[in-house]
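pasting input
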Amino acid sequence: GAGVSQSPRYKVAKRGQDVALRCDPISGHVSLFWYQQALGQGPEFLTYFQNEAQLDKSGLPSDRFFAERPEGSVSTLKIQRTQQEDSAVYLCASSTREGQDSPLHFGNGTRLTVT
Amino acid sequence: AQSVTQLGSHVSVSEGALVLLRCNYSSSVPPYLFWYVQYPNQGLQLLLKYTSAATLVKGINGFEAEFKKSETSFHLTKPSAHMSDAAEYFCAVIIYGNKLVFGAGTILRVKS
């Protein structure tokens, strides 16, 4: 059974470029989260989807960050005009349903390096 | 606001020794608490979770954690460390739904 799949695994972008990071959640999982993990730190919440609805985007650091999940399955995190401080690992996680007893399944992340 | 504090960014133990990774939480209501493990270049894997059913929670790979309300702690332990336990460990608390807030992490080194 496939887990959460993220692509690309590594991305190098020049400052000012736009990037798009993809997340394929586990089939049938309703909830999808994006987290940002800077070097040496714990993951920090970016945004949350329930099906196609983006219910919480309070963690997005600026309006350069945009996430979508148009059909309630695959999600894309887009970063416009990348800056060096955007360098981090971006983790996607999914779970079967909304609820505190539903564990999150994480992908292996996309490591973004902005030069 | 709910948060977690992990004491010690690095812990080093000898193979076969006790593993103790510390986590304290702040919460105004009974929390849901989790421990995750992260191996290099991989995502996070759930070790165990506390959801108020029992104060001593057993997880995978021989790990367990005890919820102590009086100490607002949820420390992770394993009686005997194995080389394969070397990884980074994160304590986390639920904010709402299943939105997690993570601690800063503790890197566990196991010496042979």
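fyi The two ends of chain A are 36 Å apart (CA to CA).
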